[in-house]
Design a protein that fits this description.
Domain Glycosyltransferase 2-like: 4-167
Organism: Hymenobacter glacialis
Main location: membrane
Number of helices: 10
Structural class: alpha/beta
Radius of gyration: 25 Å
Pfam family, one: Glycos_transf_2
Mean pLDDT: 85
CATH topology of the largest domain: Spore Coat Polysaccharide Biosynthesis Protein SpsA, Chain A
Bound molecules: uridine-5'-diphosphate, magnesium ion
Order of helices and strands: EHEHEHEHEHEHHEHHHE
Membrane topology: Multi-pass membrane protein
Helix content: 40-55%
Low-confidence stretches: none
Strand content: 15-25%
């Protein structure tokens, strides 16, 4: 098998038909030696996505599907696809046609030039709300500034990766997946192709703000210790200031006798310190939660039904 396309599906009944057509229109003319497969991962959709996929799979043996027992989230859906994809190269693409399938030949071409990863970089993005664009921009800049590895800015998971990279990803056991970060971490020769991101073709975004915040926190906590350190440094600075203010208070109380009952300053410092402490504890909590998730070693997902045989995990 030369090429696998992994497509996470969450309530995409409006897009599956067109997506399938456009993928075939792009992949068939490529005349890939060994052919291609489409790996649809149904991430607990509540609409007619699954029957649509089963129907496609019954008519076209290149259509593979994995049906989850519930909604596990986009990153986990892609992970399941990676676990079962058979292709020498693997394309990860959104189902909502925001990532144009027509870019795949270009990505593939670049890969043939000797790269292991070719990601698609957004030149512009249409359709997304202003708030989403701003938060996404901000997030990628902050992430870039506090991590050691260089996670490319303004890219999603739309990309083509080689079998080597797939095996690398399958070696990474973490529960809180941030796949684009993991791929940067893996290394090898990486490059990009630029494209204009289209609007969502049909249906609604499955990425609620809740899921976006979780993804952002997963990305930050998985690849940076800076927030933890910032809490410590902030704690030291604030304690230092508080110590100096303490000395000053004693000095004015006993030496200069020039003091006023200081209710406001008291309130301010108590509230401020309380705030700093809560933030620090919260940051530690974020890492702790992820630590405990990894210690639990639960399976990442449960499959309800699939037509793809399992591929044994690479040895560690
Ligand atoms: N998706 C998923 N599980 C989820 C949310 C989304 O598998 O819990 C899929 C969705 O079907 C799509 C891709 O992830 O193929 C990107 O989601 P979406 O387009 O909703 O995100 P956005 O483009 O708005 O960031
Ligand atoms: Mg989308």
């Amino acid at each position: 098998m030369e090429l696998s396309v992994i497509i996470p599906i969450y309530n995409e009944e409006a897009n599956i038909g067109e997506l399938y057509q456009r993928l075939l229109a792009v992949l068939e003319p490529m005349a890939l030696p060994g052919g291609f497969e489409l790996v649809f991962v149904n991430d607990g959709s509540r609409d007619q996505s699954l029957p649509l996929l089963l129907n496609l799979a019954a008519r076209d043996e290149r259509v593979r599907y994995i049906d989850f027992s519930r909604n596990f989230g986009h990153q986990i859906a892609v992970t399941a696809g990676l676990d079962r994809a058979a292709g020498e190269v693997v394309v990860i693409i959104d189902a909502d046609l925001q990532d144009p399938p027509e870019l795949i030949p270009q990505l593939y071409q670049k890969m043939r030039e000797g790269y292991e990863v070719v990601y698609a970089k957004r030149r512009s993005r249409q359709g997304d709300s202003v708030a989403k664009k701003i938060t996404a921009r901000l997030f990628y800049r902050v992430l870039a500034s506090i991590t050691h590895i260089s996670i490319p800015v303004d890219t999603g998971d739309f990309r083509i990766i080689s079998r080597k990279v797939v095996e690398g990803l399958r070696l990474m056991p973490e529960q809180n997946k941030f796949i684009r970060g993991q791929i940067s971490w893996i290394g090898y020769r990486q490059t990009f192709v630029e494209y204009d991101r289209a609007e969502r073709a049909g249906g609604e975004t499955g990425y609620t703000y809740r899921k976006m915040i979780r993804l952002a926190l997963d990305g930050i906590t998985a690849f940076s210790d800076v927030p933890l350190k910032a809490a410590t440094i902030g704690g030291f600075v604030v304690s230092g200031v508080a110590f100096l203010v303490g000395i000053y208070t004693l000095y004015s109380r006993f030496v200069t006798h020039d003091y006023q009952p200081g209710w406001p300053s008291l309130m301010v410092s108590i509230l401020f310190l309380g705030g700093v402490q809560l933030i620090s504890v919260g940051i530690i909590g974020e890492y702790m939660a992820r630590l405990s998730a990894n210690v639990r070693q639960r399976p990442l997902y449960l499959i309800s039904d699939t037509n793809i045989p399992a591929i044994p995990a690479p040895g560690r």
